[in-house]
Amino acid sequence: MRVWPGQPYPLGATWDGEGVNFALFSENATAVDLCLFDTADQEHETHRIGIGERTDQVWHVYLPEARPGQLYGYRVHGPFAPEEGHRFNPAKLLIDPYTKALSGVPICAEETFGYPLNNGHDDLSRDSRNSARVVPKGVVIDQAFSWGSDQLLQTPWEQTIIYECHVKGFTMHHPSIPERLRGTYAGLASPASIDYLQRLGITAVELLPVHSFIDDKHLVDRGLTNYWGYNSISFFVPDVRYSAFPEQGGNVNEFKTMVKTLHSAGIEVILDVVYNHTGEGSHLGPTLSFRGIDNATYYRLTPESPRYYVDYTGCGNTLNVRHPRTLQLIMDSLRYWVLEMHVDGFRFDLASALARELKDVDRLSAFFDIIHQDPVLSQIKLIAEPWDLGDGGYQVGNFPIGWAEWNGKYRDGIRRYWKGDGGLVAEMGYRLTGSSDLYGTSGRSPHASINYVVAHDGFTLQDLVSYEQKHNEANGEENRDGSDENLSWNGGVEGPSNDPDITTLRERQKRNFLATLLLSQGIPMLCGGDEIGRTQQGNNNAYCQDNDLSWHDWDVDRAGQQLLAFTQQLIDLRRNHPVFRRRRFFQGRLLRGSEVKDLAWFRPDGKEMTEEEWNSGFVRAIGMRLAGDAMNEMDARGEPIVDDTFLVLLNAHHESLPFAMPAHRKSLRWEVVFDTAIAVPKRRVVRVRGGEEYPLHARSLALFRLLALPRRSRG
Predict the structure, then answer these.
(1) Where on the phi/psi map is residue 228: left (φ > 0), alpha (ψ -120 to 50), or beta?
(2) Residues annotated catalytic, as ranges
């Protein structure tokens, strides 16, 4: 096979129409071999090519006879000196960090460990077994794809409604998806899937990790898998487990087709990405890629003992984003998914770990600086999980302008309120109106707050109202795993109940949570399946349950159908009324041309709440009036946005009470839009005059629309 010097850029394996350029960065390697294979399970390479060219610490070679479909990997030579931070071992075939496709799934086979497992976990001794048979090979691909006119949708933040789901879990049991496509990208792009998402009304799917990942050895030993996939090993590869066409990189085009199809339906694609650590784990983990290519560059090592890893993630290691080449890897991966795969945004797992320059989380870190100046990444949706497991890692409200955050304080506050905890009036005021206490002072907007009640990591909504304790026994960790969540009222009965009163109140609590979420300022995120009552039987850490426990059950009962209809009503209401999705925070005062404040709070006697009552926090029920004619916002044409005025009444108390309707003008009439105490609203319209009392049921939320004001066009 002919060998030419090649170029150091771009990194990875690049087909240029005539041949393939291979480029691999390693700062501390002494030699690099490119290994070519004919089959995925081949133990010995067909060709081993010693790379002689090295430019700026990049090893590169060009093969004019190589073509798309070529399988390859690397063997990297250098010191095996774990106590100095180096773990080179040419017996181990290594995955190119920049490969765009893999021939299979990475596994923790014994041969992949750089030290002998049968030697008491002595990682200071080198294992000389060849790992090529069990390591997936990189696949050279042709990036050409018929995108047509497809482009990023760039749905405005304030119009965004996120649906968090798992590619396999969402599609695996859907009866209208062809069986051969279930569990795949093609299944998510099927007409049945698209139709459901469109009818639901969401604007974006946030997919749990799709980067190629590895199953933890301790899970494999227990017969389990890493279902969620938060254990990435290849940051450019759509995992072949979710592909209906995995051969020779077919998963890449399948993923692109999924994105293009979702875009055609008006649905953005946001990826949950894990750049804070890799699946190679701690010093006792396997050698699959980064560890064998340049351990001291890619990972944060303990300064006083480089044998060990700094672990801000709880997963054994932390990527070293302080090194420019590691930071480049992350940025190149992000740009690839935007420019080549057309995804619309990212949710960064344990994002605080990426912002640690030395030890502390730094809002001005290089990671943020590079993203903010990047002409591509600065224009997409960036969402942070604003914490990690290290000291000072909880950073809700502290990420820079341009970032949205999973608002953990919203989740906790809303749960506590509907559980019936007292003293939460001021807390609810902030959370319902976009959390200005967290985001307002730094120049950010309500859309910085990603509001959610439950997510993949925890109870489903059904289980939140049904269980007081987690039931994670199936995970094999004696129920010690998973968090002890701040639960809502569940009727005092664990699990399903035959008591109709308890069942009725649980269904009401689900409606309360969903209504609160979709009527709050900020960006709502639904956890997939909550809209139909999906249960995990009390398991709040189902990360290793790739089975019926986690997959969506589409055999929906009557209660689930009613909940779905209610959720669709809420989403439709939010879409049609900009007063629920403001771009600016409320002023809480009279604005020019308006006779009422843009935002006002009321107690059950119909009077505005006083400062003392806000501070005491012991009001039994509260009312929130949103003045649609006092929004003080403009549409894209510069016209004032005017909407209806709405009143939200919330009562988390265990007793009902009469609530006097606010009356800032005589003969006001309020029309009931919905009341969560009523499962299926009657067709007749219910209207209440200002000053009259409305019977607000225990643990309920009611929404009213003001009828007295003239109707005007909306923005």
Answers:
(1) alpha
(2) 349, 385
pLDDT digits (tens, 9 = 90+) for 87-125: 999 999 999 999 999 999 999 999 999 999 987 778 999
Residue 438 in any domain: the answer is no
Strands of 509-603 (E only): list them: 523-527, 599-602
What is the enclosing helix (H) or strand (E) of 212?
A: strand 211-213
Summarize pLDDT for 529-544 with one digit per residue, the tens.
999 999 999 999 999 9
- Tokens 């077994």 correspond to what residue? 129
C-alpha–C-alpha distance, residues 138 and 333, integer Å: 16
DSSP 458-527: S--HHHHTT-SS---GGGTSTT-SS----PPP-TT--S----HHHHHHHHHHHHHHHHHHHHSSSEEEEE
Per the domain annotation, does 634 fall within a domain?
yes
- C-alpha 144, offset from chain centre: 28
Whether 626 maps to a domain, the answer reads: yes
Q: Which domain holds residue 669?
A: 579-706
Q: Which amino acid is residue 306, in one-letter code?
A: P
DSSP state letter for 579: G
CA 668 – CA 689 distance, rounded (Å): 6
Contacts for 338 with CB less than 8 Å, ≥ 6 apart = 152, 376, 377, 380
Q: Looking at residue 636, which CATH number applies to its domain? A: 2.60.40.1180
